[in-house]
Write a structure and sequence with these properties.
Structural class: mainly alpha
Distance between the termini: 23 Å
Largest sheet: none
Low-confidence stretches: none
Oligomer: single chain
Number of helices: 5
Mean pLDDT: 91
Shape: globular
Radius of gyration: 16 Å
Helix content: over 70%
Strand content: under 5%
Length: 137
């Protein structure tokens, strides 16, 4: 089951170097997943630009960029198939509301994520049926 990391941590002054080293190791471990998602987001942008206005396409792509950051920094997920509907609907929405200053509404997030997961299913053959079904409600 996917785990989402939330909350605050306290790091003793003599452990900061260890924390930073572990943080760097975690980023390095997630790098292949991040690269895969970023490549898919570039393809998603091309796909959207052929169907939607530039402004709308870039808005959706921006939401997905933030979703990628959320997945790579705040979860223990390493595969698209492991993303749960709770991560997409609840955790990401709450994180977005707390961390991002934007005029995007919760519906904007849902539409962008739905289009992304639909793109993955239709164009790339990467199907996460539970997430897609939860977004299409």
């Amino acid at each position: 089951m996917a785990k989402v990391f939330t909350g605050r941590i306290t790091i003793p002054g003599d452990k900061i170097e260890d924390f930073l080293r572990l943080l760097a190791e975690g980023e390095k471990e997630k790098e292949p997943f991040r690269n895969q998602l970023n490549a898919l987001n570039v393809e998603f942008e091309r796909y959207l630009l052929s169907k939607l206005s530039d402004r709308t396409a870039r808005k959706h792509v921006g939401v997905i960029e933030l979703f990628i950051d959320f997945l790579c920094r705040n979860t223990d997920i390493f595969k698209i198939e492991d993303i749960t509907k709770g991560v997409v609907n609840t955790h990401f929405s709450q994180w977005y509301k707390r961390k991002v200053i934007s005029s995007s509404t919760p519906n904007d997030l849902k539409v962008a994520l739905c289009k992304f997961f639909q793109f993955l299913a239709d164009e790339k053959g990467i199907i996460n049926a539970k997430v897609l079904a939860s977004l299409q409600k």
